[in-house]
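hiii, so i know i said id send this last week but things got crazy w the move. better late than never?? heres the sequnce for the chain we talked about at the cafe, plus the structure i predicted for it. fair warning i was half asleep when i ran it
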Amino acid sequence: MGGRPLVRSNFLVWVAAFLITLLLGCFAPARFRYDSFCSVCGMRRASTEWQIGRSVFAEFESHSLFTSHSLETTPVCAVLFEKGLVTQHEHRWCFGHGDGNGVRCALGAGNQLRNVAERREIANFVVALLDYTDKTTTQKWAKRLLDPEGPNQWRHVLSYLGREYVRTKYDFVKRLEETEAFIAEDVESKKETVAR
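okay and structure toks below
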């Protein structure tokens, strides 16, 4: 009879170890990675958030344990700061894309900004705007390009403007005015279509 308490205590140790492992598995931190873009300057922020795992508690909101961020200067951001079109400011982050911790693909309004902020062609367009127009016009266009809630047509200005080489200030300004009028008309017609 002396062996039974030992078997029972071994059994309890195994059950306790199993329960502890199960609890650790349920509450083990899981990684959620995402990026965001500033709607003022186009800077990219890559973030990693360590959260309580969602696999067991999918219906509950995940809770962040801690988050780390790193900043990346995009081509558009570099031009805006270099040319003095934006100055130090409080970033307005727009969630772009994320995945992890049970989420495969999360998209936000900031995903619209990725195609603007990370494209060298858009940065060159901003430089051309500054060279051929004035600071106010350039800032107006930069605001349009980086507005995640604004009409998509503004962010696709290069496809409307054309990629031909513009040789003079007059040609650029004329083409820009035509493009601006065309996009504004397109935006209005889409609003009217939606209103019907």
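btw The mean pLDDT is 83. thought thatd interest u
miss u guys!!
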